[in-house]
Amino acid sequence: MLSLDALFCDVDDFCQVFEPQWHQELLSSCKRYRHRSRSLSLSEVMTILIAFHQSHYRNFKHFYLLMVRHYWQKAFPKAVSYQRFVAWMPSSLVPLCAYLCDCYGDCTGISFIDATSIKVCHNRRIAQHRVFNGHAARGKTSVGWFFGFKLHLVINDRGELLHVQITPGNIDDRKPVVELLRNLFGKVFGDKGYVSQALAQHLKEEHDVMLIAKPRRNMENRLMLWQDKFIARKRALIETVIDQLKNISQIEHSRHRSPANFCVNLLCGLIAYCHQPKKPSLQLN
């Protein structure tokens, strides 16, 4: 696990700038609400949530009761009960979204794009599932059918996240591509799910981005620069990143009880990966 002090300092520096601006932008209402001060600050709540995804624990309740309440008692002397902390988790959703954008890497001109499934339940329990009713959908990948969402992500050649987006499972991989690549430049490599001449032409003309997708078997081979052909063969880099997000950062499990906590879990897993000191890289330098 990484240093807790370093993680807290980075999160707290962000919250000191973001939190006052966030409260100024909130819409006011005629009703008067009671704003009670919490024993844990927003930066402490975010630090605990992110630290869970950097640990070896697979159950947040065990992590909080054993690690936070026992071993980290000096670091969090005013830690509340587990039930109260779970009730506070949805309030950190907006700050986590902003903090993830702050953790994105820089575009280097060589990027990789892919999408992966985020299952919310087993296929046999789709009919009984109620938590994501109206949000999740059935989708199909190269492995098979699933029920849940799709996580679309773009990384650079150093394994750093550049942009992510989540959609229902039945959305085509090519639909969010324009939004994902809006602020990027250079060449983007994808698999055969991104084959589209109209999409590639639009990205080239409007955003000056060259989308290079692996051709399908029934398509004619086209001439490529040997540099592009070499980098296209290294597309397994983004598969390695996805594997680490699911197995190390734990962005996927089927124990969610609310959509808000699902988003918090996903965002914290992505942020934990961004803080990872050693990421998969092509080492082109």
Number of strands: 6
Rg from Cα: 21 Å
The helicity comes to 25-40%
State the end-to-end CA separation: 28 Å
- The overall pLDDT, averaged over residues, is 90
Poorly predicted runs of 5 or more residues: none
User: What is the SS-derived class?
Assistant: alpha/beta
Write the layout of secondary structure elements.
Blueprint: H1 4-25, H2 42-54, H3 60-71, H4 82-88, H5 93-102, E1 110-119, E2 137-140, E3 145-156, E4 161-168, H6 177-180, E5 186-190, H7 197-206, E6 209-213, H8 226-232, H9 236-247, H10 259-274
Parallel strand pairs: 1-5, 5-6
Antiparallel strand pairs: 1-3, 2-3, 3-4
Helix pairs in contact: 1-2, 2-10, 5-10
Protein traits:
Nucleotidyltransferase, domain 5, 285 residues, six-stranded mixed β-sheet
Tell me what you see in this structure.
With 285 residues, this protein is of the alpha/beta class. Strands 1, 2, 3, 4, 5 and 6 form a 6-stranded mixed beta sheet that branches. The protein has 10 helices and 6 strands. It has helices at residues 4-25, 42-54, 60-71, 82-88, 93-102, 177-180, 197-206, 226-232, 236-247, 259-274, and strands at 110-119, 137-140, 145-156, 161-168, 186-190, 209-213. The protein folds into 2 domains: 4-23 and 38-102; 110-253, Nucleotidyltransferase, domain 5 (2-Layer Sandwich). Helix 1 packs across helix 2 (42-54), helix 2 (42-54) crosses helix 10 (259-274) and helix 5 (93-102) packs parallel to helix 10. Helices cover 40% and strands 15% of the residues. The protein is globular, with a radius of gyration of 21 Å.
